[in-house]
Design goal:
single chain; Aminopeptidase; binds coenzyme A
């Protein structure tokens, strides 16, 4: 699938939003973790397994930046109807700090969509894995309205826009790069666990962005110097 040219929105938070959601009756949630011979959660539809296979390899080879890799799973009468990946940084996501988590590959069985499962799970991930200095990222294609609604309903803030860039040094891989930082109006309101959202646009974070993969810029976009080198995890 060629994702070049598509615009992605980068949402972030350091702590759960104000509003608390619940799961409807009949649903149960569990945290799935990988094991030596446990590559994906039991009952995962075949079409979704590829998302887990690569990450199992990264986890097993200790290529992730920390050991909190896993997924939150929701079942309805035993059937897996939702998952959301809890993913540490690796080289394809240079915008993340080593302690960060990306909530990725969220999926709800079409028969169970629109019931608040995804927003509940996103909120639970932030509650469960929050720690000082850790940011949670949720990156979504700009055209994916349901997914954007999920992240916004959980109180995450859009902090940047970007896209996939081919990485000459990591052939055949590509990396997800930030092209443009957004203004964060409520940045200082999120200080309870020690990470201010405003730090995302702070000089230290900008320096990390500058070290990220080169991004194609329009001639008028001259707000940042060209990156000197790439960043791995
Ligand atoms: C994105 C996805 C995970 C959402 O799952 P979900 O369990 O249906 O989401 P929720 O029920 O928690 O919905 C949260 C919000 O999104 C809204 N929403 C859900 N589906 C929607 C749709 N098709 N159109 C518009 N809004 C939608 C809900 O109304 C709710 O908004 P509200 O808080 O204002 O009421 C699901 O649509 C899906 O699996 N899509 C395919 C895979 C995908 O695109 N994943 C995202 C990758 S970034």
């Amino acid at each position: 699938m060629d994702r070049a040219g598509r615009v992605y929105l980068f949402y972030a938070t350091a702590e759960p939003g104000q509003q608390l959601w619940g799961l409807a009756s009949g649903y149960s949630m569990e945290f799935w973790t990988p094991k030596r011979l446990r590559i994906w959660p039991a009952g995962l539809p075949a079409g979704e397994r590829k998302h887990f296979a690569l990450r199992w390899v990264l986890h097993t080879l200790h290529l992730f930046s920390h050991r909190h890799y896993g997924a939150l799973i929701v079942r309805h009468r035993g059937k897996l109807v939702h998952y959301a990946g809890v993913r540490p940084k690796y080289w394809r996501f240079p915008f993340m700090a080593p302690a960060d988590i990306q909530i990725g590959d969220t999926w709800t069985d079409p028969e169970h969509r629109g019931k608040g499962i995804a927003r509940y799970v996103v909120q639970e991930i932030v509650k469960t894995f929050g720690m000082p200095g850790r940011r949670f990222w949720y990156v979504v294609e700009a055209t994916n309205t349901p997914s954007i609604k999920v992240t916004e309903s959980t109180g995450m803030t859009m902090v940047a826009k970007g896209g996939w860039t081919r990485s000459p040094n990591l052939w055949p891989s590509s990396s997800l790069s930030i092209h443009e930082l957004c203004a964060v109006p409520d940045a200082n309101s999120m200080t309870r666990n020690g990470t201010r959202l405003s730090e995302i646009a702070a000089p230290e974070f900008r320096a990390r962005l500058d070290n990220a993969r080169p991004v194609q810029r329009q001639p008028h976009e001259n707000h940042r110097p060209p990156p000197p080198s790439s960043v791995g995890s």
